[in-house]
């Protein structure tokens, strides 16, 4: 474990790095304030190179990352765990690009594209995230997520999810199909899509 002050566009965080000896994957958490305790505002963010680093509008990952850091900064206390190995909901970067191509060229949705590639729709697991939160002393979390299954997955590793806090990004022409597929096929709680314009 290594911890260092990290100044960001959202103010300074403590970056805490870990090596997951089970998987060999390096992980990092950004921490603001005293997080030992209850109901810590927490984002478990799945790696998305295209959205987080390149600002891709296919998905809303990059905007969620910024919004989560803003929310934690505003609260003055919280944790963002950035999960490497989660790229493409766990299928990896190249497979995700293939899946995006099937959506772009053939009109498949994000679920159909993974299935067409013979890959799981969602292969992510959250053991590392739960371990990091426990190491940081968070006894229960308010989870920034629209995905009900994420909280359930964390609870399976013994973490108390006190509440799920919506992390809604306004839909746009480029991400509306992805967002609708998440709502309709993956049960994400996205009430703000009601009446949103754009292709169905
Ligand atoms: N397979 C696949 N993965 C994608 C696609 N677009 C984004 N992703 C990945 O999806 C992951 C994020 O998962 P989402 O289903 O968007 O959201 P979530 O993390 O389950 O839910 P939230 O907590 O509400 O953000 C990231 O790892 C992205 O790399 C896509 O078209 N296909």
Structural description of this entry:
The chain has 200 residues and is an alpha/beta fold. The protein has a domain at 2-86 and 124-172: 3-Layer(aba) Sandwich (Rossmann fold), CATH 3.40.50. Helices cover 35% and strands 24% of the residues. The protein has seven helices and seven strands; from the N terminus they run E-E-E-E-H-H-E-H-H-H-E-H-E-H. It has helices at residues 49-53, 61-75, 93-106, 110-116, 127-135, 148-156, 176-186, and strands spanning 2-8, 11-19, 26-32, 40-46, 78-83, 140-144, 160-165. A seven-stranded mixed β-sheet has the order 1-2-3-5-4-6-7, sandwiched between helices. A hairpin with a 2-residue loop joins strand 1 and strand 2. It is globular and about 45 Å long. The termini are far apart. The model has no long low-confidence stretch (mean pLDDT 96). Guanosine-5'-triphosphate is lined by residues 46-48, 58-59, 61, 64, 86-89, 91, 96, 99-100, 103, 110, 114, 145-147, 150, 167, 182, 188.
């Amino acid at each position: 474990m290594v911890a260092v002050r990290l100044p960001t566009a959202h103010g300074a965080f403590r970056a805490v790095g870990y090596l997951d000896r089970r998987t060999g994957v390096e992980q990092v958490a950004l921490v603001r304030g005293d997080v030992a305790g209850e109901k810590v505002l927490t984002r478990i963010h799945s790696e998305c190179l295209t959205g987080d680093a390149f600002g891709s509008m296919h998905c809303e990952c990059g905007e969620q990352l910024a919004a989560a850091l803003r929310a934690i900064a505003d609260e003055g206390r919280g944790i963002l765990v950035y999960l490497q190995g989660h790229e493409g909901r766990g299928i990896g970067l190249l497979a995700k690009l293939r899946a995006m191509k099937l959506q772009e060229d053939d009109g498949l949705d994000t679920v159909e594209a993974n299935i067409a590639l013979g890959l799981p729709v969602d292969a992510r697991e959250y053991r590392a995230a739960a371990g990091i939160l426990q190491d940081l002393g968070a006894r229960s979390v308010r989870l920034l997520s629209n995905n009900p299954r994420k909280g359930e997955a964390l609870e399976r590793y013994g973490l108390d999810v006190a509440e799920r806090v919506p992390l809604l990004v306004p839909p746009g022409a480029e991400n509306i199909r992805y967002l609708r597929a998440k709502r309709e096929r993956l049960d994400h709680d996205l009430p703000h899509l009601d009446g949103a314009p754009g292709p169905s």
